[in-house]
């Protein structure tokens, strides 16, 4: 406790500096939309998102300090608070909501309306912020020494090292611009193929890569270990399982296929076998991995919730200092009641008033768990996918037992799951942002208002992004595979009595259990098995680049860390740049504008390899070859 009394934030409580200004609000809103849209696109393509807090902080520092010649660290903090809410809300929404579009495509239900999607997103997002407010004093202040909040602390460190804000911002913007150009060449002009693949006809396997900068960036950010687990999952799928299926079952017609496996392979190659059979094995492995991570976290979840409740009892905030002001409890209470009412009356979430209260209670439980767990293990290790699967299982069984079955029950389960998934994602993000603010000396009440603003803006935008991507390419296609939502759809259909290839699913289940026994991380392997090898091969290349840079001899650790940070910022820019051009190309596809020049110029596989080499060189240019200004 003495440590907390001795703790002094960077900006003292008695010093008032600009925070919630027009500049920070406008920049925050722009970044919330940009990073929300870019992460939605990335998540629907790869099944994972990346944190936007540090890139948003770096961009805001570059603009506020270098261009506007202002020196307010708390304004930059407010920008990243508002901006990062877009990424977290997108991460929660893309896990589940595209399932509604997939069912509509199959003719089972109406297309979800823009209003329905927005209300589901807003209910989850606002509740996520509101639930975190009463926990702030307990988790952020009282447990400052024990709950480190790695990403929140790292973001504060970046803001405190703001002397280099301008040049670091240039790194992010360079990544955005260069990746935008690469993406436009590959998917806009189409002069270079997106996939570079080699098929082994005798073995019936296939290997290849996709020439997209965002995938290279994801690999660099997650590092060689996670990237290698994902790649091995793909290798087993495409170079072991697919050849075995073709070898042993060439003349067999196996559900869900409608023709012999040999015919399937002849017509569609290894990709046809993967999408018909191997994908279900991967889905079984992912679902099992999520449940295993939740079971392993259960003791921590129980103690987390218990400790949070204990902390809240003894953490009544009586201080009048600027750095101790939260949103008033009356506002929190009225906000929660309003959300319960909206959940009850919105047709998209078909529950009774009691059901709405149960959603809120479950949401508070997962918000509490998420807020504390990200403090202990960091956002990247927070088992949100496990929580989402657990929520979906409970919601689907509860809805089915209440007598609501068929498509009505399935859409209800996805809507309930969406709300709770977004609550958990936003609560985790809010707690990281409040930790950053606590270290810097921000006003919690203003940060909480900023978080709400980011949630509202991105909640209004996410529906448009989901509609746009569906109209342009449709979910479940090669352009937008929506892997997480496909998995959630499969789980709900399975429980509601849909015909699932349970034999394939259980192969994935037991494969995941074997990996867990061997102490190999299940989730990255399972995601690798579930996604096409082309995606994971490029992620692996990014991981290898990061691994080689981290293992260099004769370079001191301080220099390595600084260069790794530059590389991470450049990759975050690449992810945002590709996502924005992806959204732009979706608009072109809907409007009917085609820029396809493949009939005039087509550089083929050689062009794809050369593009990958150029992308790697550009990453090295902005990390280890970057010249620092004196």
Q: What is the share of helical residues?
A: over 70%
Structure annotation, total helices: 22
Main β-sheet description: 2 strands, antiparallel
Basic shape: globular
* Structure class: mainly alpha
Tell me the strand percentage band. Answer: under 5%
What Rg is obtained from the alpha carbons, in whole angstroms?
A: 24 Å
The ordered string of helix (H) and strand (E) elements is HHHHHHHHHEEHHHHHHHHHHHHH
Number of strands: 2
End-to-end gap: 42 Å
Poorly predicted ranges: none
* Average residue-wise pLDDT: 87
Going across the major beta sheet, what is the strand order?
1-2
Detailed description of the structure:
By secondary structure, the protein is mainly α. Helix content is 73%, strand content 2%. The chain has 22 helices and two strands. The protein has helices spanning 2-6, 22-46, 53-67, 73-94, 98-105, 114-132, 136-142, 150-160, 165-189, 213-248, 261-313, 329-345, 353-377, 384-401, 406-440, 444-472, 483-495, 502-517, 522-530, 533-550, 557-591, 604-621; strands at 195-200, 205-210. The protein has a two-stranded antiparallel ribbon. Helix 10 crosses helix 21 (557-591). The longest helix has 53 residues, at 261-313. The protein is globular, with a radius of gyration of 24 Å. The chain starts with a helix and ends in a 9-residue tail after the last helix. The model has no long low-confidence stretch (mean pLDDT 87).
Helices and strands, with pairings:
Elements: H1 2-6, H2 22-46, H3 53-67, H4 73-94, H5 98-105, H6 114-132, H7 136-142, H8 150-160, H9 165-189, E1 195-200, E2 205-210, H10 213-248, H11 261-313, H12 329-345, H13 353-377, H14 384-401, H15 406-440, H16 444-472, H17 483-495, H18 502-517, H19 522-530, H20 533-550, H21 557-591, H22 604-621
Antiparallel strand pairs: 1-2
């Amino acid at each position: 406790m003495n440590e907390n009394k001795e703790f002094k934030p960077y900006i003292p409580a008695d010093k008032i500096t600009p925070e919630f200004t027009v500049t920070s609000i406008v920049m925050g809103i722009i970044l919330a939309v940009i990073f929300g849209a870019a992460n939605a696109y990335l998540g629907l393509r790869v099944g994972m998102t990346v944190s936007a807090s540090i890139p948003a902080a770096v961009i805001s520092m570059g603009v506020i300090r270098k261009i506007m010649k202002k020196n307010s660290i708390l304004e930059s903090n407010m920008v990243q608070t508002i901006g990062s809410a877009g990424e977290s809300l997108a991460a929660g929404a893309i896990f589940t909501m595209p399932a509604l579009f997939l069912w509509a495509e199959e003719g089972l239900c109406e297309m979800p309306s823009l209003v329905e999607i927005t209300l589901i997103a807003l209910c989850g997002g606002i509740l996520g912020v509101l639930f975190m407010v009463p926990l702030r004093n307990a988790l952020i202040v009282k447990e400052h020494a024990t709950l480190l909040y790695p990403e929140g602390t790292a973001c504060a460190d970046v803001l405190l090292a703001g002397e280099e804000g301008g040049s670091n911002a240039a790194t992010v913007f360079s990544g955005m611009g260069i990746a935008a150009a690469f993406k436009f060449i590959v998917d806009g002009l189409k002069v270079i193929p997106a996939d570079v693949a080699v098929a082994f006809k005798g073995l019936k396997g296939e290997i290849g890569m996709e020439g997209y900068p965002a995938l290279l960036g994801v690999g660099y950010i997650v590092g060689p270990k996670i990237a290698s687990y994902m790649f091995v999952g793909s290798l087993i799928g495409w170079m072991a399982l697919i050849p075995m299926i073709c070898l042993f079952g060439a003349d067999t017609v196996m559900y869900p296929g409608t023709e012999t496996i040999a015919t399937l392979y002849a017509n569609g190659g290894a990709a046809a076998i993967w999408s018909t059979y191997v994908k279900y094995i991967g889905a079984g492995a992912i679902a099992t991995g999520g449940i295993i991570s939740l079971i392993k976290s259960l003791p921590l979840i129980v103690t987390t919730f218990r400790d949070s409740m204990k902390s809240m009892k003894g953490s009544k905030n009586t201080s009048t200092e600027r750095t101790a002001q939260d949103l008033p409890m009356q506002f929190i209470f009225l906000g929660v009641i309003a959300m319960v009412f909206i959940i009850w009356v919105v047709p998209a979430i078909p529950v009774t008033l009691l059901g709405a209260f149960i959603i809120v209670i479950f949401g508070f439980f997962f918000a509490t768990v998420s807020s504390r767990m990200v403090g202990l293990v960091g956002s990247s290790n927070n088992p949100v996918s496990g929580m989402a699967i657990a929520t979906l299982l409970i919601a689907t069984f509860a809805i089915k037992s209440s007598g609501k079955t068929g498509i009505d029950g399935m859409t209800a389960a996805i809507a309930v799951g969406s709300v709770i998934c977004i609550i958990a994602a936003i609560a985790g993000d809010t707690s990281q942002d409040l930790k950053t603010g606590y270290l810097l000396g921000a006003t919690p009440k203003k940060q909480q208002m900023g978080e709400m603003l980011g949630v509202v803006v991105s909640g209004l935008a996410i529906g448009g992004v989901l509609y746009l991507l569906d109209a342009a390419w449709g979910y479940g296609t090669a352009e937008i595979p929506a892997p997480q939502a496909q998995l959630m759809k499969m789980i709900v259909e399975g429980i509601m009595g849909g015909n699932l290839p349970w034999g394939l699913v259980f192969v994935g289940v037991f494969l995941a259990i074997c990996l867990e026994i061997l102490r190999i991380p299940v989730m990255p392997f399972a995601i690798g098995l579930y996604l096409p090898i082309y995606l994971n091969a490029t992620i692996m290349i990014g991981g290898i680049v990061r691994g080689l840079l981290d293992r260099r001899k004769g370079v001191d650790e301080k220099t390595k860390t600084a260069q790794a940070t530059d590389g991470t910022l450049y990759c975050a820019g690449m992810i945002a740049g590709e996502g924005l051009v992806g959204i732009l190309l979706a608009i072109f596809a809907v409007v009917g504008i085609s820029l396809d020049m493949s009939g005039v110029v087509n550089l083929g596989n050689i062009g794809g390899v050369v593009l990958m080499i150029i992308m790697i060189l550009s990453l090295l240019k902005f990390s280890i070859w970057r010249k620092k200004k004196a």
